[in-house]
Amino acid sequence: MTESLFVEAVRSAGARVFRVGGCVRDAFRGAAAHDMDYVLTGMKETRFCALFPRAEKIGKAFPVYHVYIDGRRTEVSFARKEVKTGAGYRGFDVTFDPAVTIEEDLYRRDTTMNAMALELPEERLVDPYGGRADIAAGIIRAVSAHFTEDPVRALRAARQAAAFGFSVAPDTILSMTACREELCREPGERILEELTRALSAPRPSIFFRVLCRANLLAAVFPEMYDLIGKSQPVFFHPEGDAFAHTMALVDAVAEESDDVVTRFAALVHDLGKGTTPAEMLPHHYGHEKVGLDVLAAWNRRMTLPHTWMKAASFVIREHMR
Q1: What confidence tens digit (pLDDT) does each residue in 156-214 have?
Q2: CA–CA separation, 65 and 265 (whole Å)
Q3: Is 126 in a helix, a strand, or coil?
């Protein structure tokens, strides 16, 4: 089914259809879209299922369907509103009746650049929160106070800064800081997912520096935070402390390799320096041995992929040779 046929069927049923999310954002960034997502307004779920009987339902808390359009699997959801009722990303009551507007749906999203829609078939831009202007200015900005309701959005904002080379608005930094307590209770799998995507960015260091600005680094990645202020011999490390050295190295490795495993190994190669006693500084005798213990503690807190652990252990143990 082509997009034009999909849109025609939805419009013929008296409903409206919009492209939303990353595909709209990337279009205004001049980048290729990885996924295509759609939101419908003014349509009941039963009517949708009658129109598209081969659609595969994947949402549980609210209806989301996979539909093959233009040869690719796309996500089609119904416009919805959310009310925070509990902790974490599952603690929401969701309303998705046909009366929910596209503006209400966009309002619940994280940042303004992700809160735009293109109404089809005209491709009329719906941008109630200034996402297009923020993209042009290179700014990541929270749409509303709803930002803090899913604490992982704080990691996502930092990761997007690394991915796009954007800055984070000062008020959004404050919103990220407000996520700290709840973020510490999030499942390790969600944090690992954002870390993986951050390590895939052109400059992974931006992710950790933004988290540091938001006072989140110590809470989420204490092994990285502990490197701050750990001085090193200036002759070998004119770039600064162990944190500055690690950030410079992970970016340098990112320029040479797209492999996330390699980038993670670079990120953690000097973990042991974070435990060096003050009286030993600027030297870090035996840090290649201590670093293995620090890595093991990280793995206990947040189970890391086996390939990451294998590569990182080797690099920590042998990087002084």
Answers
A1: 999 999 999 999 999 999 999 999 999 998 999 999 999 999 999 999 999 999 999 99
A2: 38
A3: strand
